Amino acid sequence: MPKLPGGIGHVPIAVYSCATESAAVHEAERRARLYADARHWHVAGTWSDDGPRVPLDARPAWAAVTSALSSGLIRGIVVAEISHLVEDADQFAALGVLIRDRGGFLTEAPPPANRQPPGQHERRRILLEASSGWSLWDDLAPGTAS
What we know:
The protein has 146 residues and is an alpha/beta fold. Helices cover 41% and strands 18% of the residues.
């Protein structure tokens, strides 16, 4: 599969998460998929464990991910947060080196950027009211609107 400069291309990756609540797992998978999709990476599979306190080498889904990496099924692993794997950034970096030695890569999907500046929602509401010809203020203070 071709790989384009900058880490963009049709690269098969695994999405891995580890959380006790299924909602947290689904959110982590969604975030990691969005990150992968933005880079045109192919999500070959999603794996999740439900025991964040369990050592990494004792997690069955993590074992499946590393097996997929060793067999060449995937070339990279994307997690939503480093806490799904390890306790701190140093451990995450060390794990990334181990994975790189096996021919793969490990990356964290950064949190989505807040693209809406503070107060933008309120400014849009005011503009919408002004353009639609009615105002919330008419109901709150009759006779004050022109």
